[in-house]
Amino acid sequence: MITTPSMTDDEKKPPIIIICGGIIIGIVVVLISLFLFCRRRRQQQKRMEEIRLSHQNPLNIDEWELTWDNLMIKGEELGSGAFGQVLQGKLLGLEKTKSGKLIEEKEDVAIKILQRYTNELSEKNFLNEIQMMKQINGHKNIVKMIGCITVGDRICLVFEFCPYRDFLQYSKTKQTELVSV
Q1: Which is nearest to 64 in space by CA: 162, 159, 165, 161?
Q2: Cα 131 from Cα 127, distance rounded (Å)
Q3: Do you know which PROSITE patterns this protein is assigned to (predicted)?
Q4: I need a surface site. Which of 1, 7, 87, 159 has the fewest CB within 10 A?
Q5: What is the rounded distance in angstroms from the CA atom of residue 120 to the CA atom of residue 45?
Q6: Mean pLDDT, 10 residues at a time, the chain of 181 residues
Q7: Residues 51 and 130 occupy one common structural domain
Q8: Is this structure's pTM higher than 0.70?
């Protein structure tokens, strides 16, 4: 009978060098990933701080900038979204918008307020939305921007108030008015 040599228990176990090498490679990969994650996070924080400083720099404040003294929040929530909530309010004082329209004292406005505890990406996107609204303001199919507050802790965007909120609400209101006549 021919017998084949069998492996001993020591030969069945992987060498300790392979196990240690695998553990060391795993630790190195985790450390590199952690380093890259922290570096990317620091870069994002630095970019966000630059954006905030550019908005807080008095030289960068433009004619769109309002103060909280100009606004009175009524408290009625008109809607909410990814960045925060939209509240009904009043603009206090006589203001001239970029389009040249005079906003009369105590005119109703919609105030879109960024959430108090939001992440940096949402804040950056909200500030980008404000910049975009400044550029496209005056289009006949877009609600007019009246101003914004970008200096300080609470950032907001102020729009003209639409009493029917959106086209769906407007069409429903008009439909019920026509039916009741």
Answers
A1: 159
A2: 6
A3: PROTEIN_KINASE_DOM (PS50011)
A4: 1
A5: 7
A6: 56 77 94 94 80 59 79 81 83 62 67 82 85 82 84 83 72 68 57
A7: no
A8: no
